[in-house]
Amino acid sequence: xxxxxLQILNGLDKGSAYALIALGLTLIFGTLGVVNFAHGALxxxxxxxxxxxxxxxTLSHKVVDETxxxxxxxxxxxxxxxVYDFFGEGVGDLLIDWxxxxxxxAAIPIMIAIGFIMERGLIKHFYKRPHADQILVxxxxxxxxxxxxxxxxxxxxxxxxxxxxxxxxFDFGVLLGFDPNAIIYPYWRLVYFFFSMIIxxxxxxxxxxxxxxxxxxxxxxxxxxVGILGIDIDKxxxxxxxxxxxxxxxxxxxxxxxxxPNYHMGMDFLVLSFVVVVVGGMxxxxxxxxxxxxxxxxESFASMSAVIDLLPGINQIIIYLVAIIILLTRPxxxxxxxxxxxx
Length: 343
Description:
This protein is mainly α. The protein has helices at about 1-30, 40-55, 80-95, 100-120, 130-155, 170-175, 185-210, 210-220, 225-230, 235-255, 265-280, 285-300, 305-310, 315-330; strands at about 60-70, 75-80, 170, 185. It starts with a helix and ends in a 14-residue tail after the last helix.
């Protein structure tokens, strides 16, 4: 039972990342009808926002420390972060320690701006083009973004630690009556799950209960009728592209302490996220979220040593096997709408 609960937790962790990326993908496809293969790159850029802010906060200059000497008795030169000069050592250490959560504040406007630039500068020219053209151009854009990041940050993963308060693991089993240390789970992965739930709930609440969201949902259902009413639906859809980019970016920011950011992490998640979208149903936001968690949990169970010993390599293909089975029995996915990509 303890292993069962642990795999559920691992699955919710993986599913959170899949669901957030798939949610942004579905927002873009549902509003603009664009199959955006550059969405994984937006996830990666969010992670590098966290890396960049961490590097900025740790920029330092040399200062002679009279209290410390080398073996010859000469005062040592030590590196002092610039944030100490502006805010003092106590606040400076706090800012450095909490650089990842603080990156959220920077990531929101940055990712929205990147989304606007992508949509207005390139993707708007492919609205009426075949989906194959959209896939090719956005995949090419993803490669360009990936190589730019590689040029500036290098090819190696860059460790980006979580705040010290969330370093270590939580004894989850004690709460459920198990022996101590039976179910140990990292604090930050729990934080990531709850953060994902907040973002997902926020997106659904925005679409469901705000006037802007209601107009967007109406435009997703019948774009021409909304346009006849005098509403500039194209402008609202452009804003939704920016919001979808921000969702992917925030997913990347908070994922940075879990998996050290590298230039190809977006591609690692991209294919799986598209499988999630297809399984959930093209254009279905609830389907994308449900499929993300479902496939995350299945992948987690397939990674157990007992399962791998019985079926070697099953953890690498389980998501695709499930996708094949679901699409054979439900061609539109779990919650797909009639007519979406069926022309």
